[in-house]
Design a protein that fits this description.
The protein has seven helices and no strands. It has about 140 residues and is mostly helical. The two termini are about 15 Å apart. The model has no long low-confidence stretch (mean pLDDT about 90).
Length: about 140
């Protein structure tokens, strides 16, 4: 599955989607759904929330995917009992795997000041691993 996910990540990145958007778009595409509003609103969560390189947008995207499947979405609906555990499991895994939850720590460069673009390869790899983890959660 990694090659298929890698191809999707590359394709969506080439189309100009950022990390959080890619995570959500892949999940929505997987279920044959489309929600341009949620994809558009996720843009502000990329590059560490608002481009400040704080909490990683990939982590946020993963939590949002869990919410799509297990969260509350209507007045007459309740979140699934396992929702909190799934978020905790994914968040703990992410922090252990990438040794931080902050974009700047994970990619190791200030993408705005350093003029560095190698972060794109790191982010692509993190998206692939995180997406695989969140769909197994």
């Amino acid at each position: 599955m990694s090659n298929e996910i890698a191809f999707k990540v590359f394709k969506l990145s080439a189309l100009g989607y950022c990390c959080t958007q890619i995570m959500l778009k892949m999940a929505l595409d997987e279920e044959g759904s489309n929600n341009e509003d949620i994809i558009r609103s996720a843009n502000g969560l990329c590059n560490g929330i608002g481009g400040r390189q704080s909490t990683c947008g990939i982590l946020i995207g993963g939590i949002m995917i869990i919410g799509l499947y297990a969260g509350k979405g209507r007045d007459d609906e309740y979140y699934k009992e396992s929702y909190g555990n799934m978020v905790h499991e994914f968040t703990s895994w992410f922090e252990e795997k990438f040794e931080s939850m902050d974009c700047i720590d994970i990619i190791g460069v200030n993408k705005f000041d350093d003029g560095e673009s190698s972060y794109m390869l790191k982010c692509g790899d993190i998206i692939i691993k995180s997406y695989e983890k969140v769909i197994e959660t």
